[in-house]
Each structure stands twice: as C-alpha cells, then as structure tokens.
Amino acid sequence: MTAQGLPMAVPSEGLPPRVRIHEVGARDGLQNEQRTVPTEVKAEFIRRLADAGLSTIEATSFVHPEWVPQLADAERLFPLVNDLPVALPVLVPNERGLNRALTLGARRIAVFASATESFAKANLNRTVDEALAMFEPVVRRAKDQKVHVRGYLSMCFGDPWEGPVPIHQVVRVSKALMDMGCDELSLGDTIGVATPGHVLNLLSELNEEGVPTSAIGVHFHDTYGQALANTLAALQHGVTTVDASAGGLGGCPYAKSATGNLATEDLVWMLHGLGIETGVDLGRLTATSVWMAAHLDRPSPSRTLRALSHKE
Ligand code: MG
C-alpha cells in the first residue's frame, strides 16, 4: 500500500484496460437494508458517489411502493439527482413502472428476470416465462424511445430452493432478454455461491449461443467470499462491466448470510491494483460509505473500507 491509501498498481496481462462499475448501492443496497433512509440522504449519497467518479449509479426502483417500502420515494428522489452528469438507471417491473420512470425523464431502465422458477415465483409471483412476457412490452416501448435497457438475471449460479442452476437454463433466459431488445445483461449470483470455473463456463456458453461478452455485466455477491475471485475470472474472459455496492450495502433477503453485494471499495482496490482504470477516487468513495454507514447505524462489511477508515 502506498502512503495515500492506494494499492500499488501492478498490471497483469490479458485484462481489460478499463472497467465500468455499475454502482448499485442506492438501489440494490438500500432496498435490502433494514433501515429506510430519508430521501434527502439518498440524494446526497448519489451525489457523493458521482463526485467520487462513479459514472453509472442505479438510482432507485419504480416497482410498486408496497413491494419495496425502502424505495417508495422514487418519485421524489429521481428529480433531486437527475441533473447529475452520470447514467442513472432505474428498476422498472412493468408498464406502469415504465410510465412513472419516463414521466420523470429516466433514460436508462432495468428489468429483472429470474433464471429459476422458484425465485420468479417468490420475487414476481409469476413463472419465468410469464415474467418475460410482462417485460416484453416494457422493453419494446423503452427501445422505441431510445431508452437504454439492462436485463438483470437473478439466480444464475445457485438458487436457495432449487440448488445448483443448470447453465442451459441461464442461457435460455439470457437469450430471451437479449432477443427482447435488452442492451446489456447483468448476471446475478444472488446467493453468492458461484466459483470462478462456473463463471467461465457460463460466459463461454453464452458466447457460443450468440450473447457477446461486450453485452454482459456481472453481479456477484460475497456471501461465501468468492466475489472478487469470480470478478477476476470474468475480467480474464473480457467482461468490462462489474456491479458493486458502495460499502457493500444490501444483500439478498433470501441468502443465509448478511453478507451480500460485492463492496465497491473492495472491487476498486483490486482493479486499481491491477492497473485497470475505473475513474473512481477511492478516498472519496470510502468517505461516502463511512458517512452512509452512520445513517444506517451499522458497520460496513467491506474489508477495504475497514482497512482504509481504521485509524491507528
Ligand atoms: Mg445484489
């Protein structure tokens, strides 16, 4: 470590020169936290993340407010941050949600499918195919308006009810999302059970079935301590979009452990150590997460955050 709290950059061959971090703390993170934070705090959080150099910050969710009470203030929050010079995708489950998002000027949306029937039922009360049918008109209308569409796919590696998820099942739903018109996919390891070989196999199968690596983002959870190893495998395969959550906020209510999203600080430490550009100022990011942890009244699970914010 250098005196400035940065890793020594030692580039490694075969890795992308730059990675785009898709910051999910304000949405995936806060949606899964016990404590609901005030709208103004969320807006300041997003502003601070943008100031720290994150260029894609998922802002909120336009699901029915009763589904996700932590994000029920989407209508109030979005206008408070929409002037920021960053991409601000929002989650949209259906046409009603799309209408709400478009009315406020959202230019990037995300739909969220499941690779397994059990999670589709638990999360959307639909079969996998019924959920896809619900998203189809949403994606079509968004594309008609030149809105960028991300397709989240949950349970790509394991499912808490079904166990290991067959790769062909993940590939089938991935292709359906791409065929529908999604611009990018985010492959979610929702319960954090993936290991690097599994990641590489899935990426290769997707490529073979016509889904290009350039359209793939990875969304790893650190439940079993595998998120960075899985990320490195994905980078070696050519993936350049990685989801992470500032301070490791949130997780998955269906996972056994409280440890969920890969912390952005941990990711940035590894990427900068590999000499990979992210545009992120790790010091500003860390300060932001320390500030947010105080609002949530709980310590961050991020190892890097703890190391950098610990004063002897
Ligand atoms: Mg997540």
UniProtKB/TrEMBL annotation:
Belongs to the HMG-CoA lyase family. Keywords: Lyase, Metal-binding. The keyword Transmembrane does not apply. This is Hydroxymethylglutaryl-CoA lyase. It comes from Streptomyces glomeratus. One of its GO terms (molecular function) is lyase activity. It comes from the Bacteria. Pfam families: HMGL-like (PF00682). The lineage of its organism: Bacteria, Bacillati, Actinomycetota, Actinomycetes, Kitasatosporales. InterPro entries: Aldolase_TIM, HMGL, PYR_CT. Transmembrane segments: none annotated. Residues 19-286 form the Pyruvate carboxyltransferase domain.
